[in-house]
Amino acid sequence: MLSCVFQGPEYSGDILSREKLNRPIVNVYHRHPGTQSPEAAHLIQGSSVLRRCLLSSKEELSRLQGTCLQLVDNLHGKRAAEQVDSAVFRLRTFLQQGLY
Question: Which PANTHER family match (predicted)?
Fold first, then answer.
C-alpha cells in the first residue's frame, strides 16, 4: 500500500513568509525539463498574447456589427428621402405643366 504524505503548499500563493516550496513532489516538478525549457515560456507568453488578441478582436467585431446596423439604418433613411424627393419633383413637374 502506497501512502502519500503532503508536507505543505504546492504553489507560492499558498505559502506563508516562513515557508518554502521544498516538498519532494515540488522539487521533482521543478527539476522536470519541461518546466525549464524556453519553449514552455514561449508557449505561455504566446497563449496570453493570443487571449488578448481574441478579446480585442471580439470588441472590434462588436463595433463593426454596430457600424453595420447604423449603415443599414442610414440606407433605409436615404431610400425614404429619395422617394420623397422624387414625389416632390413629380408634383412640381405636374404643377408647372398646369395639369392639375
Answer: COILED-COIL DOMAIN-CONTAINING PROTEIN 105
Cα–Cα nearest to 65, from 75, 53, 57: 57
CA–CA separation, 26 vs 98, rounded Å? 99
92 vs 62: CA distance, rounded Å: 45
Total structural domains within the chain: 1
In this prediction the pTM is 0.46
What number of helices (H) and strands (E) belong to the chain? 3, 0
CB-CB contact of 94 with 100 (8 Å): yes
Cell numbers of 42, please? 514561449
Mean pLDDT within 20-29: 60
